[in-house]
Structures are given as C-alpha cells and as structure tokens.
Automatic annotation (TrEMBL):
GO terms for cellular component: cell septum. It comes from Humidesulfovibrio mexicanus. Keywords: Cell cycle, Cell division, Cell membrane, Coiled coil, Membrane, Transmembrane, Transmembrane helix. Residues 31-58 form a coiled coil. This is Cell division protein FtsB. The lineage of its organism: Bacteria, Pseudomonadati, Thermodesulfobacteriota, Desulfovibrionia, Desulfovibrionales.
C-alpha cells in the first residue's frame, strides 16, 4: 500500500514538473518564443546598422564632395544655375474638368 501511494505521489510530481518544463513562463515554449524574438531583433539591428552606415557615408560626402553637394542642392531644393530654367512636372496627369464629363458620357 505504501509503495502504491509513493508511486502515485512520484507520478504526480513528475507530471507537475513536466507541465512546468513545457508550458510555464520559463518553459520550452517560452524559450522558443524568446529565440524567435531575439532573431527578429538582431535582424532589425542589422537593418538599423546598415541605415546608419549609409547615412554616415552621405554625411561624409556632403561635407567633402563639392559635386555631390551641388547635385543634392539642385535635385532636392530645386536650385538652378544662372540662365537655367527649371520645369517641375507633377506625378499625376491633370485632366480638365470638362474632359472628365465628356469621358463619362461616352
């Protein structure tokens, strides 16, 4: 009888320990989730490092490369040299309002 009670207690303890190993906050499933999260964070860190390097290179070029400075100023700020004309086209095509009504009728 004592052996049976001891065996039942040991099986119950093993089941509790098994449950804790697999499904608790510090168990195998939580560990696997943390590994996935760590991999995602490392990927994000790599992306941020690459962006930081890219920005550092652009800063260095803006400080030292006169031709690059001129290109950026002309491209992003729409500056022109003397006797130049700048044409800025929008990305969308504007259709006159009357033409829209004519197209709907057809």
């Amino acid at each position: 009888m004592a052996r049976r009670i001891l065996l039942t207690v040991l099986v119950a303890v093993n089941l509790v320990l098994l449950f804790r190993i697999i499904w608790s906050d510090h168990g195998v499933i939580a560990y696997m989730n943390m590994q996935k999260r760590a991999a995602e964070l490392e990927r994000q860190l790599g992306d941020v490092d690459a962006k930081c390097l890219e920005l550092s290179n652009e800063i260095r070029r803006l400080k030292t490369d006169r031709a690059y400075q001129e290109m950026v100023i002309r491209d992003k700020m729409n500056y022109v040299k003397e006797n130049e004309v700048l044409y800025i086209f929008s990305d969308r095509t504007d259709v006159p309002q009357g033409a829209e009504d004519d197209e709907k009728k057809d």
